[in-house]
Design goal:
- It contains nine helices and nine strands.
- By secondary structure, it is of the alpha/beta class.
- The chain has a single domain (about 5-315), classed as TIM Barrel.
- The strands form three sheets. A four-stranded parallel beta sheet has the order 6-7-9-8. A three-stranded parallel beta sheet has the order 3-4-5, covered by helices on one side. Strands 1-2 form a two-stranded parallel sheet.
- β3, α5 and β4 (about 160) form a beta-alpha-beta unit.
- α1 runs parallel beside α8 (about 265-285) and α7 (about 230-245) packs parallel to α8.
- The longest helix is centred in the N-terminal third of the chain and has 24 residues, at about 5-25.
- The protein is globular and about 55 Å long.
- It starts with a helix and ends with a strand.
- The model has no long low-confidence stretch (mean pLDDT about 95).
């Protein structure tokens, strides 16, 4: 768990990074899914307390509960830009081709000790009450809980972002996220240890909901490893090119607050990626799609109203 003192700068920086990301998405016609924590919709502390009152967080580690942090929360977004975000949500919705998904209401940890399926269901009920047309979900900390997918389906979720098929990326808890896995994930960002994790439409797991798996986490810029930036960029470009050539999907993702520090460098790096996507679009008809787009395409294919030529490669950006 990060404290406000440790990570507050990233959160405030995200308020500058998000408009920059949106400008790039508009410039390069990028469709993106924004999986948003529902608490960010609240306009006041009174509203937040009311919604949290009906939710239970029986984590063995009490710090995982958002209720443990309420003493730090201010009255509204103007007073407390760390814990509210409705203005940012409205800015995202104002840009074409941006899908609003969910990161659960409370940033619910689906694999931590003590949590239960009934409490997860209560959380999703609260998401539904936001009255957004939400059909895509990203599990907080990538804690994909297969047992919870039917609950997701019950509340209108049709797709989630699954993990890469490698033991270093498998769903983990705070206890099982070993230093070995963390080191290997870091190395894999620069050197191809585990493959590019591209995948075809026909191989997407469909039941009970679609598993639109991750291909690559866009690790933020690090001054410590700045001399390796060309390797990091090449790693991503090669994955994108492989997907384009093989008519497959490439699912790139990150958190906006990852760009909250070194914002200029991170946006420049992102633009280099999007320039390559633009090139692949010209050469291979590489298309940008968000998670709901993929869901809709699979519905069309299942209905058999399109010809085989409809199969073309995609990039999915979150």
């Amino acid at each position: 768990m990060f404290t406000l003192e440790e990570y507050g700068g990233n959160i405030l920086g995200a308020r500058l990074a998000i408009p920059g990301i949106l400008q790039l998405f508009l410039k390069y016609d990028i469709h993106a899914t924004w999986a948003i924590v529902g608490m960010l919709y609240c306009e006041s502390k009174t509203e937040l307390l009311t919604k949290l009152e009906d939710l239970d967080f029986p984590y063995e580690k009490g710090a995982f509960s958002p209720k443990s942090n309420l003493w730090q929360v201010g009255e509204d977004e103007l007073q407390d830009p760390y814990h509210y975000g409705l203005s940012l949500i409205e800015a995202i919705k104002a840009v074409p081709n941006q899908e609003i998904g969910t990161h659960t209401f409370s940033h619910y940890y689906c694999l931590e000790d003590g949590q239960q399926i009934g409490d997860f269901e209560k959380d999703l009920k609260t998401v539904v009450q936001l009255k957004e047309k939400i059909s895509s979900l990203v599990f907080p900390r990538n804690q994909t809980n297969i047992d919870y997918l039917n609950v997701c389906k019950k509340y209108g979720i049709t797709a989630y972002r699954g993990n890469e098929e490698s033991w270093i990326y498998g769903a983990y808890t705070s206890k099982t996220n070993t230093i070995t896995k963390r080191i290997l994930r870091l190395v894999d960002a620069y050197v191809n240890l585990t493959g590019h994790h591209t995948f075809s439409l026909k191989n997407i797991q469909k039941d009970p909901i679609l598993n639109i798996k991750s291909s690559r986490f866009l690790r933020p810029y690090s001054s410590k490893f700045s001399f390796l930036e060309k390797l990091r960029l090449r790693r991503i470009k090669k994955g994108l090119t492989k997907a384009a050539k093989k008519n497959e999907l490439y699912h790139l993702w990150w958190h906006p607050h990852n760009f909250g520090r070194n914002t200029k460098e991170n946006l420049q790096f992102l633009e280099e990626i999007l320039k390559h996507v633009d090139y692949l679009k010209f050469k291979y008809n590489f298309q940008s799609m968000h998670m709901r787009d993929v869901t809709e395409v699979l519905k069309i294919i299942a209905s058999k109203v399109v010809e085989k030529s409809y199969y073309f490669p995609f990039i999915v950006v979150f």
